[in-house]
Amino acid sequence: MKTPIWLAVVCLAASLPTQAQTFKPIELKDQELATLRGRYVMPGRIISFGIAMTSTWQNANGEVIGATSSMQIQQSTIKPQFYVSMIDEKGNGSTRSQGTSTGTGTVTGGSGLNTTEGVTQVVRAAGDNNTAYNNVDINVTKANQAPATQQQGQALTSGSTLVGNNGAGSLSVSSTGSGVQFNIVANNNQGSTVQRLAQGGLMQNTTLLGSSNQVRNLTSFNVVLRDNVPTAGSVSGNLDQLKGLRTIGF
């Protein structure tokens, strides 16, 4: 009566090594990892990380309103911060009727755009002869030392807003706990544009209601990687620098 029980135990014990081999981890080769979506880089290899953003609106008369903002993070950076330079350009002197008339176009819907994740690029037009350009660049280079940088413009502190206006429209650049946002509202109901970098996502959204406008939303991420292998101290130092981005919503 006991023989079948012992036989079952022996069979189970004999099968254990085979089961253990079944779940043995398999190491992926570098060539296989290179084809996967997304890659991992040790923080110690990142010696410089920068963000540059530009939003501009040009109306039919050639008047331009906009701003450019940049932030550079290196080992010597104490606090990550955006610096903003306003763009205010006069017209070319050849006034056209499209630039002085009020836009009559209508665009409806779009409430769901505020809940998107990742990179969202939208252009909605209800006019003629308009040009809208949304673009995101990621530039990765290698060097032995961080490039020399000189921040230009006015510092954009958390919770602050910089404003400007001219014949093309009104502009605001704001920084909150959720990130950085550019807003341009064109005069004469010609339209509006928003560019926002916040909470791990990027939004570039343009609505055109008039005619003969040119709109540009550009964002560039620039990373410089060190060629040589970093020490343990430099790895922790770079991690501390990158943690500073959390306070401004990144």
3D architecture notes:
The structure is a single chain. The protein has 250 residues and is of the alpha+beta class. It has one domain. It is built from 4 helices and 12 strands. The strands form 2 sheets. It has a 6-stranded mixed beta sheet. The radius of gyration is 27 Å and the shape is globular. Mean pLDDT is 80; it is low at 6-23.
Computed over alpha carbons, the radius of gyration is 27 Å
Largest sheet: 6 strands, mixed
Quantity of strands, as a count = 12
Count of helix runs: 4
Structural class: alpha+beta
Overall mean pLDDT: 80
Poorly predicted runs: 6-23
Strand arrangement in the largest pleated sheet? 5-12-1-2-3-6
One letter per element, helices H and strands E, the order comes to HHEEEHEEEEEEEEEH
Estimate what percentage of residues fall within beta strands: 35-45%
Short recap of the structure:
This protein is of the alpha+beta class and 250 residues long. Helices cover 16% and strands 42% of the residues.
Keywords:
250 residues, alpha+beta, 16% helix, 42% strand
Topology record:
Layout: H1 3-22, H2 30-34, E1 46-58, E2 64-74, E3 82-89, H3 97-100, E4 119-125, E5 131-143, E6 154-156, E7 161-166, E8 169-176, E9 179-186, E10 191-198, E11 201-208, E12 214-226, H4 232-243
Parallel strand pairs: 4-11, 5-12
Antiparallel strand pairs: 1-2, 1-12, 2-3, 3-6, 7-8, 8-9, 9-10, 10-11
